[in-house]
Here is the input.
Amino acid sequence: MLKELINETEMELMLERLAFQIIEECPSAELCLVGIHRRGVTLSKRIHSIIKKHKNINLPLGALDITLYRDDLSEIGSFPAVYGSDIPFNINGKSILLIDDVIYTGRTIRAAIDAVIDYGRPAKILLMALIERGHRELPIQPNFTGKNIPTVKNEDVQVHVREIDGDNGVYIRKV
Here is the structure.
């Protein structure tokens, strides 16, 4: 059973706050947004839209599929879903802001960093996670976080986005 932790309105306000923090701390001339498939791509589009609306800045926007970079690829099945990456800009010398929905062990982000490096040599790689749930296995921390939700390992935090899940919100459930 899912328990709602953050509703649609709270999620929208969280994204607005994160967008303003990102613009305040990152020079826009060097910044590129890269969402990690699946929900990170949707969140990156929303952050991009907020920045464009309020600051009239059109940042480069990309999508990253880390499936083949995962260290647990053999455990996720014989035919994992591959969504494909789309980085339609040169990342050399740029600040790349990786955007994901939930940061947990840090392994997804490690895979994302490996994938980004295959595209070139960015000046900097930053991270935005909508939800920080703890239990890191790698020394990776987000630069921008929407909300810290302490969990135990048998809990699952799910970010829902309308484009994929039919609703917007953050939920938790026991597994």
Notes: The mean pLDDT is 94. Strands lie at 3-6, 31-36, 61-64, 95-103, 124-132, 144-148, 155-160, 169-174.
